[in-house]
Each structure stands twice: as structure tokens, then as C-alpha cells.
Amino acid sequence: MIVGVPREIKNKENRVGMVVAGVRALSQAGHRVLVQKNAGLGAGISDEDYRKAGATILEHAKEIYDKSDMIMKVKEPLPEEYPLLREGQILYTYLHLAADERLTKALMERKIVGIAYETIQTPDGHLPLLAPMSAVAGRMATQIGATYLQHDHGGKGMLLGGVTGVNRAQVVVLGGGVVGINAAKMAVGLGAQVTILDVNVGRLDYLADIFGNEVTTLYSNVEQIEKSVRSADLVIGAILVPGAKALKLVTREMVSHMSPGGVIVDVAVDQGGSVETCRPTSHEHPTYTVDGVIHYAVTNMPGAVPRTSTYALTNVTLKYAVMIANLGWKEAVSRDEALLKGVNILNGKVAYKQVADDLGLAYEPVRL
Q: Is it the case that residue 273 has pLDDT exceeding 90?
């Protein structure tokens, strides 16, 4: 199989879909890897590094798409990339289709095989290809929140951990999954007062065991969310329903009661966001203000730390890439239940039920 790795073109996206180890693994298995010129520079990987590992470097994205059986990326295709895709081509990347009807319909029209990192799910419910980027985004959310609480960034001029004799910042984390636990680790480490809300009582028990009295765990309902958000200096949205639009848990009214200079970081924005006042932003223009509250809603947060996030991501994506290349996608998904759940688009139809339901499109499951 010919596997293509184009350069990412999303705003300030410096990650790359494959590292040198991936090129070596696929080449040794008898496959050919095409990498677009300078695709890995943001992650510290030169074209020469890829060449030495056995890759062929091509100048233009169109060459990559034209010659490849499978495209391996990080982020979803942008509109200028839609025409490059062709029928039957495998697209293996993050897609986040539930929040993007235009992209979904474009992929349906192109009749590609769309395999989404974020919905590959093991029988125990684990999302192995989403977890590392969730960990990165969760840790970044606290760092970013701390930065924007500074007065020079428009915030209320508050140090997250305070100092002796001065109040610490109140950090509220909505969701106790991978994003939430990593955000909480960072916030606790910086000395903030941290509250985590979740609807899974077992998860709250687990978080209480890990953090002890360093965090307050609350069952998530409208009343608890409202009280917590009103008193928060920093709110971190960390809600996830696999493959689905994020639940809108924080209303505009709740935001209006936050004190001016407070900060909201919505990590779930690439799935539609969990805060009613949030809309997607970019690394170039990351924030905006609503009712005096700073909103940060960048859809590709880990792209700001491409060295860390590229290697964390490719550690888990390569296994399935090799499986697909060796067996073909049909045989690969028939053998691996987790990979089967990654198929979102097939034969011009939506093959993942939650995406179809959220967008009001017909659902057609993968039939093997």
C-alpha cells in the first residue's frame, strides 16, 4: 500500500501524521510512504530524516493525494483539501464530524473511507487514539487559563496558586475524563482550589482517591454547575461523548454571572463546545470576550506543542496504520472491533450512528 502524509494546513497546526519510526515500520512491512516537503518541520523532523527512513519526499499535496491509497493526517481536511480526495481512498485522521456538517457531506460526496481517530474504541470503552491528545489539551488548558488570568492578557490579575495570605484561584473542571484529570493535575500542582464535576459517581470516587482533599468532587447537575461556574475564576470544559456533539452545560446566563476577567477554556470546542458562549477560534486569534469573561476555544490546542503531541499521537496511531496497510481496511476492521468503530464514512454514507443522529443524516452501518 502507498501511504501519504501531507503537510497540515490548519492555522498554526505544526503536528504531522507520521514520525520516522512510522516510516521505518511501514517500509519494513513492504509499503511505500510519501511525505510532503517540510511536513515534519514543526515537530522537529527534517525531510532528510524521512528520506533516511525510506520515505519519498514530494513537493505538493496534490501529488501525495493522487498517488496514495491511504492518507494519514492529524486534523480534518479543510475545504481546499476536499477536491484532492478520491473515491475509495482511506482517510485516517481526526475528523470530529458531529460538529461539522459541511465536512461530513464533502467526505460523503467524495466517497472516501473515513476512519476517525477519535471514535476508535476498545470493548472496555477506552479511546486509545484520543487519550494522548486529551492529556495534552487538558494540561495545556490549565497553563492557558493561568496565562489569561494575568492582567496583561486581559484577566483579573490573579495568580492561580496565590501566595501566603492571599486567596488562590477557583478552578472548575467540567468532566472527569482524560482531559479533566490532566487539567486538574496541573491546577492542583500550581496550588489552585479545584472542583471537578462529573455524572459518573464511580469516576468521582476514583478522582477522590487520587487527589484526596486536594480537589472537591461534585455530581454534575444544573444547580451544581451554576453555583460552581458563578464562583469560578477559571472554567475548563472537558466534556466528551464519543463521536457526538458536546453537551451544552454552561449557559450564557451562567457566564454573565462570572466576575469580569474570569477565563473559560473549552477543550470540547472541536465537538461543538460545552459552553453556550463558545465558538471555534484559532491559535492566531485564540480569544474573545463575552460579558467581560475571556473565552479561549482553539480547536487544535495540541498543535501549539507539536513535538510533544506528534510523538504522543503517533505512538498510538501507527499500530492501526500498519494493520490497515497490511490487511486492507476491510480485513483490518473485521479483525479488530475497536478499529471498526473508527469507520465514520463509507460508500457515501455515514457509518457512525452518533454522527448521523447529531447531523440528521441517514445512518448505514459497516457491513462486512
A: no
